[in-house]
Amino acid sequence: MWWSIRVVFVLHLVPIFFAGRNQVYGELFTTTSNGGGLINLELKPSPIAKFLTASALAHPDNFELQEKYDWYQPLLKNCRLHIPDEKNLILSYYGHHSPLPANAVIPHGTTLVARCPVLGKMKLLGAVSIQCYHGKWSDKFPTCLPTTPSDGLSAFIDDHPPTIKTNVPTGSAGENAAGELVVRPGSVVHLDCIFYRKLGNPQWTWKKSNNLNRTHPFGWAISREERLWRFRISIFSIQARDEGEYTCTTPRGHNNSIRIVVQTIQCPAIPVVESPLHAVIEGNYAGQRINYFCLEGYQLTGSNFSECLTSGLWSENRLPVCELIQCPYDMDGADPRLEFDFLNGVGYKAMVKFSCPPGYQLIGLNNATCQQNMDWFPPPPSCQVVECPELLPPLNGRIKDSGSSHFVGDIVKFACNRNFQLLGQAEITCMENGVWSHPAPLCQMLCSHPGTPSYGFITPANATYEIGATVQFSCQPGRKLQGRKWSTCQQDGSWSSAVGACVIGT
């Protein structure tokens, strides 16, 4: 429904709300000039319109609205929503479940309803509803009191109102904007008063909305896990006669209540979903859900469920979307030297293989798989330059290369001091795996030539001899060796026996 209204003596136009005979509230939709200083406004109704004109702020008593039927009404003041000391309080207006934002401006005549977060976990103390009337609230804002802990009996202290937990094993139920439990007829409802059994027995009482009395069974829960701390009242096949306020009172007089409303509330027909999106449907009554999921290889974008609210609307007005999983070709933060080999694309469960250029070694796993969250796992490895371990010069020898670091392809040469022999490779190379191609050589001491007997011979006749080498001495014909015939090169570089002499023999 739309209203056409003329505004008289407006100096500067911004969105506006109106209060008249029919309590019309609206937001500026269009403006058209009719000449003569009069401007037509088209307004659409809004329960939380929150704007004034500049002229109305300057002259609220003289500001007039002229409707097409020529009646006049001064603009009524709005109210500001400001409750800084009560962070847990949730305020909304009738017919709407969503909470109002902090510091919202509320128009005259609007009634707000209050509730605490998580039904039964806090106790609302004060008025359930308050109304804005010409800039003032009809009552003080209520507060939310903490209740007894429900997640650990070891620290249980009976100094707060009891927590009440709801359970609807059969049927369905949901919470409305006023903090009431709206239950579908025929449902089974369990209300559990959380209290430590060893401290005594709480009591359940109820005030019915009508004069029809009906008894309900109550007592401690039976299961082993619950019988020490859940004092339960059960309402089977709930009907309209069971509507009312159910209160649990502890032995010390602390109490908490839940108000039950029995009503059938249905949300619109369940939307049809198409593959790859799939849905598990509980139903379309208040408190029931549609749970969404995607086929393997797709990621859900949007809410994974939609709940039928007590307003008769679904909590989500749009279906989620199944997005094809595609992992990125470029990996953020990856080593710039890392090389990729995508074996089978970048879709879900695709695999990428990692490698490093020559001279670098891979630090980490050499492959990763595309995950449901569109990212690779495990994270990419890094490429670390390959460096062979430092070499020490052999005893009685030296390294011809003076560098302190050795990378892939580097060649190191060795040499031994005089009278020492190199045992091993004179040159070794740093390999791609970070090890040397051969062990470092040794410098072994040599024996120098022991000398040749006069008029004699030595076999073999070398310039130097290795440790353990043996030489034989002999004489020319007609002469005889005086001394040992054999001599061995010892570890210290000396010979085991001196060179003998060749004398004329008889």
TrEMBL record:
**Residues annotated as domain Sushi:** 265-324, 325-385, 386-445, 446-504
KW Nucleus (keyword) present: no
PROSITE patterns in the record, alphabetically? IG_LIKE, SUSHI
Q: Which Gene3D superfamilies match?
A: Complement Module, domain 1 (2.10.70.10), Immunoglobulins (2.60.40.10)
Tell me which UniProt keywords the record has, alphabetically: Disulfide bond, Repeat, Signal, Sushi
Q: In this protein, which residues make up the domain named Ig-like?
A: 162-266
Signal peptide as annotated in the record: 1-26
Do you know which InterPro entries this protein is assigned to?
A: Ig-like_dom, Ig-like_dom_sf, Ig-like_fold, Ig_sub, SEZ6_CSMD_C4BPB_Regulators, Sushi/SCR/CCP_sf, Sushi_SCR_CCP_dom
Tell me the CDD domains matching this sequence: CCP
Keyword Repeat assigned to the entry: answer is: yes
Disulphides: C327-C370, C356-C383, C416-C443, C475-C502
Instruction: Specify the protein name.
Output: Locomotion-related protein Hikaru genki
Organism this protein belongs to: Daphnia sinensis
